[in-house]
């Protein structure tokens, strides 16, 4: 493509800072591509002002773009769940982002909380394919007799063959394209027997199409153990929406912190734009100070560029970010947003 | 008490080995107490032979005891879910084990996968109070059109004010009795809004009864991050059945592995016997070789003794186990079941 129409949701807190930096990097890497951006004022500020989270008009406008770049939304003044359910998850569900892609790579220059005894065993490089449109995130459930001693609250995890199969097939395809060709299903099928067995049977069925991919299974509790004792065992992980949420935060911590963790909310069928965002939140405590690390957003931009068919530009961003990170002096004070951005821009020759 | 009637479920795999060792330790520590044990043949072997998981007679017999000591059940020949739902969880539900107690202490001699930079910050010593009778573990849900492209599988998390309040109050009482007096609620109330808000409101309400306890909240994904970057921040954690399952395996890994992790399935109202078991499973791959580490079962015995009012004996077991572990040479080969047991028995003067 020679042009790129981006819907930008900078959001709240450090969102605008990291998104601003990321757009500089994106433009530098995508030289020759006409990049047009449309700002979408969504998040806590908008909600405080108007009470709106995401209107039909917002959604229609976003749909007209090639992709969405999101910073972070939220502030402590918004009741829990309002923006998560009303904006973030609504976008993922409406735009059918059934592949929530979260690479976990321990890059040179990143600081892991794991011991050398664990890390010296080899490189940590895996990707979690988290289902993004079903499971415990569907918002089914409710509450009865709220606030009384007889209150009952339910949450329903909904899992369909359609929904599980498409994400499992995507994960297999990703595994098949990687050198190790290994897929690990994470669930808890010994307790959540209905959903778990659907996932298990689906993996067994789709496996027939990918004879070279080795398949492994871990209960979610065991998976957390291996993430800290043997993260090298993972290549591609496929799991449901909630387990994926938990595992990817842990994986981010293991590979240097959520300041470095990128994610793509991908609609592989391209019936709607995909959305790319750092895994971290709006971090209101450090907002406006120029200290937010934009690296996770840069890496999200790389995922975005790859998705829209600008693979070379994606590669340039990835290489520049990895190089800049490796250059950091771990003993020195953490560089600010501007310094991190300039280091990456310099490597992009901008 | 001068006597103790124990229902023993040694189970499968390494279960009989660790339980045998643990009963030696229990008898040595509880000198002067008449310890009577009734073996209950439950688990994979029984299921293969008879197709039974837990009969009404088994349950009635177990109920007649002061406490239950369980080793581990399961082998690869039993379909997933059969023993978990039909035996383990059935016991927890029938005996109303609403407090699933899981201490996490990094003991001298244990090997953590975390780096010195994290560990040097201070001792890791917390306890997870996992709800044991509700949440996603209730077994509600089902599946429709199984095996077809139109399959739908649901899992329903059921949470009641009654169930949440009693476990939250228990956790507050435990926090109030500890020097740091800190309670962390872990949930995901920004997504699982119905269940999450019930948990949150309940903590806020019960907090009034414990003005000296500091209360903190973490989303489950963030909690996994802190477990590996700042485990010292935790004192008492209270959470639901599934989050507790996940967090306690991760916590066990952080504090030296599930070979050391003890647990109590406690009925604080004493309407039925409580059950004590190591967090690990039956490990069929190493069964019968005398290499299983019985330490987790010893520590479970300490929890058991404490629960039945034999606090001094519990303290003796705890001290002996901690001492024996500290004596281990981390560079040497891992000691076998007999050697670990003898080291603890020697410290008990037996
Ligand atoms: C903010 C929240 C809704 C979201 C999630 O749970 O998916 C976040 O934790 C994430 O991982 O992107
Ligand atoms: C075996 C399984 C049912 C059990 C659970 O999920 O509770 C186990 O993982 C545990 O933590 O005791």
TrEMBL record, chains A, B:
InterPro entries: ICDH/IPMDH, IsoCit/isopropylmalate_DH_CS, IsoPropMal-DH-like_dom
Domain Isopropylmalate dehydrogenase-like: 5-344
Keyword Manganese attached: yes
Keyword flag Transcription: no
The protein's enzyme class: oxidoreductase
Cofactor: Mn(2+); Mg(2+)
Keywords of this entry: Manganese, Metal-binding, NAD, Oxidoreductase
EC numbers, comma separated: 1.1.1.85
Molecular functions per Gene Ontology: 3-isopropylmalate dehydrogenase activity
Superkingdom, natural source: Bacteria
Name of the protein: 3-isopropylmalate dehydrogenase
Record organism: Aquipuribacter hungaricus
Phylogenetic placement of the source organism: Bacteria, Bacillati, Actinomycetota, Actinomycetes, Micrococcales
């Amino acid at each position: 493509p020679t042009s790129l129409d981006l819907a930008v949701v900078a959001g709240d807190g450090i969102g605008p800072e990291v998104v601003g930096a990321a757009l500089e990097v994106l433009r530098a890497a995508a030289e020759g591509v006409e990049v047009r951006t449309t700002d979408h004022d969504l998040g806590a500020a908008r909600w405080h002002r108007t009470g709106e989270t995401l209107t039909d008009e917002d959604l229609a406008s976003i749909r007209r773009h090639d992709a969405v770049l999101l910073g972070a939304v939220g502030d402590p003044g918004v009741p829990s769940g309002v923006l998560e359910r009303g904006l973030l998850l609504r976008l993922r569900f409406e735009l059918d982002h059934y592949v929530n892609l979260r690479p976990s790579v321990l890059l040179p220059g990143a600081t892991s909380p794991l011991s050398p005894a664990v890390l010296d065993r080899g490189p940590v490089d895996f990707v979690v394919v988290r289902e993004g449109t079903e499971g415990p995130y569907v918002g089914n459930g409710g509450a009865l007799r709220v606030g009384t001693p007889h209150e009952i609250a339910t949450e329903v995890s909904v899992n369909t063959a359609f929904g599980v199969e498409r994400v499992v097939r995507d994960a297999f395809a990703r595994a098949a394209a990687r050198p190790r060709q290994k897929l690990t299903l994470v669930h808890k099928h010994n307790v959540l027997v209905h959903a778990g067995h659907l996932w298990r049977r689906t993996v067994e069925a789709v496996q027939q199409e990918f004879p070279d991919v080795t398949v492994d299974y871990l209960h979610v509790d065991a998976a957390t153990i291996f993430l800290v004792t043997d993260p090298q065992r993972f290549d591609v992980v496929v799991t449901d929406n909630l387990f994926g949420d938990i595992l990817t935060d842990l994986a981010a911590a293991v590979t240097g912190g959520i300041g470095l963790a990128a994610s793509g909310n991908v609609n592989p069928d391209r019936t709607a734009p995909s959305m790319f965002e750092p895994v971290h939140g709006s971090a209101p405590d450090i907002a406006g100070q120029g200290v937010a690390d934009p690296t996770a957003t840069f890496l999200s931009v790389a995922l975005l560029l790859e998705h829209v068919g600008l693979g070379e530009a994606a590669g340039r961003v990835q290489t520049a970010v990895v190089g800049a990170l490796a250059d950091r002096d771990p003993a020195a004070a953490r560089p600010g947003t501007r310094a991190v951005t300039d280091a990456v821009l310099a490597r992009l020759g901008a």
